[in-house]
Amino acid sequence: xxxxxxxxxxxxxxxxxxxxxxxxxxxxxxxxxxxxxxxxxxxxxxxxxxxxxxxxxxxxxxxxxxxxxxxxxxxxxxxxxxxxxxxxxxxxxxxxxxxxxxxxxxxxxxxxxxxxxxxxxxxxxxxxxxxxxxxxxxxxxxxxxxxxxxxxxxxxxxxxxxxxxxxxxxxxxxxxxxxxxxxxxxxxxxxxxxxxxxxxxxxxxxxxxxxxxxxxxxxxxxxxxxxxxxxxxxxxxxxxxxxxxxxxxxxxxxxxxxxxxxxxxxxxxxxxxxxxxxxxxxxxxxxxxxxxxxxxxxxxxxxxxxxxxxxxxxxxxxxxxxx
Length: 323
Ligand code: DGY
Known about the structure:
Helices cover 37% and strands 13% of the residues.
């Protein structure tokens, strides 16, 4: 029997690409050049499976291609707001993602952003590299203490819980959260976490607010000027979720006016563009969407795609089916 034809949109870790070559008739992307909409459409017309990543916009228009051959979209990443799921459903396409394997690394990175923002680590590093450091002194680059402070989580899914574990056990932080689908009581109890009825309550009370909700229409600009104004002036906003959850213009204004003390961002609306004012602000830490970017995790994500494709082509239900 001939192997299923699979097209991969970006360069993947070598181990995963080798496994794909063993199992499938795979077209890899050696140059790692992002695919255009037309190239994605050509892939959908010629492959049994198409494997995009979170930076490919698999829109309704892309999916509306004539002579669609693809039957499964095996996306590399946990988020799926880059795929028009209604259109995928309408075209009877299966869609899978890669949850769980990136939980720890993304929580590690959210914690990194929290620590870097509070302790002015990015600013400090620039200071040293720019040869501006004049030596230790009692009032030099004082930041905010993290231990014992209150961490407010917007969304309490896998990554938020992993961050809460780090913050509670490692830094003695008080955990408050809001989520329309709260975790089981034993999870909440193990973190001595307290639920709040609204985003507003979390924003008013937390010293650090970390966003852990999906991107997309329902959470677009969830954190806007009104909500930023509810945060404490000494508080920090951390975003390792999706860029469009924050109104970036409102955030820039809030950082500039001292409405909040600082922010740590790994994601942006319209990536890879980063608004120019953020680039010159000292009270914001900027990372290039590195949440899952450890070698182990990126390999595990790829292997999870492989597993989903294998199940699908064996006539089984893929474990990570989204639609
Ligand atoms: C995802 O998987 O959704 C992340 O944003 C990239 O790791």
